[in-house]
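Preliminary data (for renewal application), flavin-adenine dinucleotide complex.
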Amino acid sequence: MTDEDRAIQEKARRFVDEELIPHELEAEMNAGQLPRDVIERQQAKLRELGLWSINMPRDLGGTELTSFQQVLVSEQIGRVTNGLGWVLHTGPEWAVGVFTADQVDRYLKPMVAGDKRECYAITEPNAGSDVDAIEATARREGGDYLLNGTKWHVTSFNKAEVVFFQAKLAGGPKAGSHALFIVDIPSEGLRMVRAPAYSHTYADQHAILEFEDVRVPAANLIGDEGGGMDFTYAWFRYERLMIAARCCGAAERLIEEATAFAKERVQFGQPIMSYQAIQHMLADSLTELWAARLMTYRLGREIDEGVDLKVQHAHCSMAKLYASEMANRVADRAVQIFGGRGYMRENVAERFYRELRVDRIWEGTSEIQRNIIADQLAKRGAGTLAG
Ligand SMILES: Cc1cc2nc3c(=O)[nH]c(=O)nc-3n(C[C@H](O)[C@H](O)[C@H](O)COP(=O)(O)OP(=O)(O)OC[C@H]3O[C@@H](n4cnc5c(N)ncnc54)[C@H](O)[C@@H]3O)c2cc1C
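Predicted structure:
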């Protein structure tokens, strides 16, 4: 790590400790919500620290950290529960060089500035892991497209001004291929069906949306007709790496908190830390965290070095798979070490136990990550992927 890397990591750590962790319980007891002035203070602090839009180019108003530095920041953000770390705004990096000049002005710059927030509508009732099974359609009509479809789990819809909508083209030379659109919120024909309750207590909801003849100008098509899946893959790679980083941060916090508790908690006349059963749970957790962290850090550096995209894709799956499963094992052990206290919502282990579960599901389930890894292994060999 360079001095600059370490300084960024330290800044992010202090921000999490001072500005986010103290608000976890308040959020847990208030449906994930924090008062407006608290969020505004956190946002101002992030800007002051140079941690705003860390993944976006400077000429668009971002901080443009290296991928490795973004990993360091995300890891710290992962140490906090209740999605409070989402205040660290990271816009759609994949859109850089893809959006037209007009789309950059109307959408990307406001996203980088934090004036517009985006959400993603890809998953459908009959298309989850199998993205190619989507039934949503986009039909060209003069200078517009008409969008139709039902979308599930649309994260942050309640806070967003823009939704990226993935559909298959109905008609035209590229009929049946994927296309991605920018849709303003609100738009005529776009309706929230409901916002179901999920395991975690986050302010960001995961809405079910209905698109019924939503009309968008052709200028809101992203890239070319048929290019929809490329952008989705780029987004998946970025998110999988950042999930791995956040899982490392969560595991570190859990290990620290569980160790502190084990040293203090006395049963049968001794701190429970003196019992081998407890020691081994912590030792396994620490060892697995180290492995996940090494993997994630190396992947961050690989991306900065411009390693082959297919290798990056496989490594993003490997890091996400290993780190998310590691963090879930660590959370389970932490609950066990805290005993009955670990089952209370006011306990960090209880919250992480619920919250980390989704990291094995979203942005591609563990099973899908294994499929990707095995596919790449067959094509490239173990030496290329684990050398
Ligand atoms: C909290 C939350 C937020 C989300 N946010 C968004 C969002 O913002 N935008 C969005 O578009 N989507 C979002 N999603 C959707 C998420 O990406 C999907 O849930 C995920 O991709 C899995 O799809 P599915 O739920 O339909 O499960 P399915 O694909 O139906 O899978 C069910 C089970 O079958 C397994 N399975 C499926 N295919 C295979 C296979 N080939 N081999 C082995 N096993 C297989 C899966 O691993 C899983 O265990 C979110 C989901 C959650 C829970």
